[in-house]
């Protein structure tokens, strides 16, 4: 009986962990899509240079990244995040 209970607890914990990881992955993907969408709306198609700064923008909070994306020029963004 103890083995069955231990297995059930492990299974529940594993499921919870999987759900949490899935939610976190979904939030990251949603944030990345938002950043790419803002870049596209400002600068058109995303080329390799702009794509290269997406991870750095994702590392910032939304409060930090959105004003940058809305106010900085393409050149300013590239200079800030590629240098």
Description:
By secondary structure, this protein is an all-alpha fold. The chain has one domain. The chain is 88% helix and 0% strand. α1 (2-43) crosses α2 and α1 (2-43) packs parallel to α3 (62-71). The chain is rod-shaped, with a radius of gyration of 20 Å.
Write a compact overview of the structure shown.
This protein is mostly helical.
Sequence of secondary-structure elements: HHHH
What is the average per-residue confidence, as pLDDT, rounded to a whole number?
A: 93
Silhouette: rod-shaped
The N- to C-terminal Cα distance equals 61 Å
Strand content: under 5%
- Rg from Cα: 20 Å
Low-pLDDT residue intervals, each spanning 5 or more residues: none
Percentage of helical residues?
over 70%
Structural class comes to mainly alpha
Q: What is the β-strand count? A: 0
Main sheet?
A: none
Total helical segments: 4
How many structural units, i.e. domains?
Answer: 1
Descriptive tags:
mainly alpha, rod-shaped
Please specify the SSE layout and strand pairing.
Elements: H1 2-43, H2 48-59, H3 62-71, H4 74-82
Helix pairs in contact: 1-2, 1-3, 2-4
């Amino acid at each position: 009986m103890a083995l069955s209970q231990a297995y059930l607890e492990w299974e529940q914990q594993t499921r919870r962990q999987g759900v949490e990881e899935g939610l976190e992955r979904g939030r990251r993907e949603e944030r990345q899509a938002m950043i790419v969408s803002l870049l596209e709306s400002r600068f058109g198609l995303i080329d390799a240079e702009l794509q290269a700064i997406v991870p750095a923008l994702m590392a910032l909070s939304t409060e930090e990244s959105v004003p940058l994306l809305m106010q900085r020029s393409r050149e300013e963004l590239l200079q800030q995040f590629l240098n």
